[in-house]
Amino acid sequence: MSIQIIHAIYMTSAACFILALKWLSAVPTAKRGVITGIVGMLLAVGGTLLNPELLHKGITSYQWILVAVVVGSAIGVPMALMPMTAVPQRTALSHAFGALAAALVGTAEYYLDNGSVLTVGNLTHFKMTALGLEVLLGFLTFTASLMAFGKLQEILPTRPITYRGQNFVNLTLLAAAVVIAVVLIIDPTKTHLFPVLMVLALVFGVSFIIPIGGADMPTVISLLNSYAGLSAAAMGFVLNNKLLIIAGALDGSSGLILSIIMCKAMNRSFANVLFGAFGQVQVSAAAQEQKTARSATPEDAAALLEDANSVMIVPGYGMAVAQAQHAVHDLFDALTKKGVDVKFAIHPVAGRMPGHMNVLLAEANIPYDKLLELDDANAELPQTDVALVIGANDVTNPAARTNKSSPIYGMPILDVDKARTVMVIKRSLNPGFAGIDNELYYLDKTLMLFGDAKTFTTQLVKQLNESNGGR
Amino acid sequence: MNSELLFSNFYVFLLATFLGLEVIRRVSPLLHTPLMSLTNAISAITVVGSIVIAAEQKTTLSTVLGTVAVTASMINIVGGYMITYRMLRMFKKQERKQP
Questions:
Q1: Section A261-271 average pLDDT
Q2: Partner residue facing B92 (CB), from A221, A351, A367
């Protein structure tokens, strides 16, 4: 097949990827987006396999590819069937695979062009720059993503691990890797330095995630998404392939946007996420004054919910931990049947990755048009009769608006305290993940519903259904 | 590589980045998780480079690295598209038969 036809195939593939992302912007067209993305990928793979140079080598050149395709699919399918609660871990793991592919191809390219005695000095400075970037980003994203996977899967401790001079050590590692890369760019034939670059990148990936806590993983995953894309784009520069550059750039910009959104949702800067070691145990300086919170039984709570015209459910990750999604769906159904207008207020960092909570609720058959974003939810909360908080804590803390000394001051929150009545399902009054006391629990309009999220929600549903039968 | 080619690659990168920023900005926060799994599958375009390395079979090292890279990319292609589609199938609107 001629090279012109392959270019045409690659261009069509690039167009497919752009359309895929465009159509993903809204639910009605999103599935079409995925199909288009698949078509784009099939075109890219097909065009590559039909490359005249490869065809010329005959069928033997495809044997290893066939093996790799079979093995890769055999691992890929189970990874696509994981439960929705495990999607953040899965995503971190797939960033690791993507980055590994880029890094290994870069390594192979380097040794092909430079390692063998016959071709020493085949690399231009520019090609080496792109290759260095590909390998550096690829290997550091590989280990960093594995670390993020470990923290999300809770194989590794989720709290940040810090030591004195940590930022100095990390920056030194990165600087050393960059210096080696620059030396290699100036003289690509210094082959003994290449493994050093690989090792430094791998070690930096690990050490850079160590001080980052579980609560910051949404930002980190997005950032790693961006890096994996950029290493693919760098590969495009090395191979002089514009399809790789376009797809890599799309992925890079997507990860960048998502990490900016996550940072804004937590009112933090990139520097603060990466070097701040947020989520360490904070010893509250304020005296533990005895404040009283009002509590209510499932019967009282069910009666209040039944009498309400509008209910806003505010789910947090605690709901998913308690596996309460399906109980929440039953609650949604029971209330909707009684003519109560039930909606959900979704904070951008409610789950463990961008948009995670929406997927969890969609999985539990809750209609997506009932899921409100932060701004829309805050516009409706002042007219809402009952705000029911399930497993969320910091994203509802009014201290973020009022208390300048609070670590979460300035973070955009859901203004549940503006609803007429607030109900919070929580095991106890203990502070949450970030260790910050929530004054919401001590408001006059707040009723604490003590118990496990799933058990309590199930009890609410039972009460509501019973009162239905009694009528 | 001549500089003409190099610069045309930079132009492509620049335009694709801006296009990406514009397109992604419009994606509803509702779909940010599927977005990430889809871009993950798309960035498995590294399969193109991996296939070339694996098929050329120039040295044992390059063949091994290329084959592992094709495997890693395939995991993301198959897994990424499948899970994105699976997630999107879960997004349903409210049924219209409410009392």
A1: 86
A2: A367
